[in-house]
Specification:
The protein is mainly beta. Helix content is 8%, strand content 34%.
């Protein structure tokens, strides 16, 4: 059975939550299967990055890594870019991402997006609580390009 991007994301979250035994392709966004409810996480553009870029999954042997990232209040990431697709889900807090010439975006708890690729940006925690972000990197084993590259100036 073919999974649409929304169903793939729901299935991926079920799998990463330890519910791999559930036939997630059968769970739908409006109902339950075996008392498991799979509700899609809204994404404005699941087939493009947040900047509207087309992307492709890397070739080769797949490598998926997930990280639970906490950005303390008022702190920023370094200026960086990603070479591979990255699905980001904001668990808590308010995240501002500055994409330089493409402007800033603010993400609230419960929002998700596909991060820009090969575009320098900085993330910053806004508000009075840290940002907790789940990041799912969709890469390949060789070369492992999951670590972001450092940028010297914004794009």
């Amino acid at each position: 059975m073919y999974l649409t991007p929304d169903r793939w994301i729901a299935a991926f979250f079920l799998f990463s939550s330890g519910l791999a035994g559930v036939p997630s392709a059968l769970a739908n966004e409006h109902g339950a299967y075996a008392q498991i409810i799979a509700t899609p996480i809204p994404m404005a553009q699941s087939s493009k990055t947040i900047l509207g870029q087309d992307f492709r999954y890397p070739a080769g042997v797949p490598l998926i890594k997930a990280f639970d990232i906490t950005l303390p209040v008022g702190k920023s990431t370094d200026l960086h870019r990603h070479a591979i697709p990255l699905l980001a889900y904001v668990v808590s807090g308010e995240l501002e991402v500055d994409y330089g010439s493409q402007g800033k975006r603010v993400f609230q708890a419960g929002q998700s997006y596909v991060e820009a690729m090969e575009w320098c940006h900085i993330g910053r925690a806004l508000g009075a609580q840290p940002v907790r972000l789940l990041a799912f990197y969709l890469g390949e084993q060789e070369p492992d390009r999951i670590a972001p590259d450092t940028c010297s100036k914004p794009d």
